[in-house]
């Protein structure tokens, strides 16, 4: 895997993410030196999203198995701890104990070779 550019959190291989809801974790270190973990997820044929693996309810990871974060019945990201449901495109919690709060979304752009995406911090919505 190439070294991420200075303004990037990570470079992630999106090629295994072929179906809606396919997701993987990635590790990053922010500008303060804090280690974190993100999620890269395919929403549809043309859309990938990335967000911090951090539920706004209790501040814990959304789940240890990224393949189980997406519920295709309503196309939501679901926190494994208490079942809060989030719109993967906006990050908004629309159902659950942190309703109205957001996942921290990251910007993504194409990476140096096909299938690789560069994840950048974009802040809150
Ligand atoms: S920690 Fe995610 S819903 Fe409670």
Automatic annotation (TrEMBL):
This protein's name: Rieske 2Fe-2S domain-containing protein
Species name: Lujinxingia vulgaris
Report which superkingdom the organism of origin falls in: Bacteria
Rieske domain spans which residues?
39-117
UniProt GO molecular function: 2 iron, 2 sulfur cluster binding; metal ion binding
Under Pfam families, the record lists:
Rieske
InterPro entries membership: Rieske_2Fe-2S, Rieske_2Fe-2S_sf
Which keywords fit this entry according to its UniProt record? 2Fe-2S, Iron, Iron-sulfur, Metal-binding
């Amino acid at each position: 895997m190439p070294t991420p550019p200075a303004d990037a959190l990570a470079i992630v291989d999106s090629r295994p993410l072929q179906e809606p809801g396919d997701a993987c974790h990635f590790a990053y270190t922010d500008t303060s030196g804090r280690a974190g973990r993100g999620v890269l997820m395919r929403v549809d044929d043309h859309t990938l999203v990335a967000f911090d693996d951090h539920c706004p309810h209790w501040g814990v990871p959304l789940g240890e198995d990224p393949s189980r974060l997406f519920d295709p019945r309503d196309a939501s990201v679901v926190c494994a701890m208490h079942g809060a449901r989030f719109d993967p495109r906006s990050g908004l919690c629309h159902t659950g104990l942190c309703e109205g709060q957001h996942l921290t979304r990251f910007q993504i752009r194409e990476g140096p070779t096909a299938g690789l995406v560069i994840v950048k911090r974009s802040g809150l919505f």
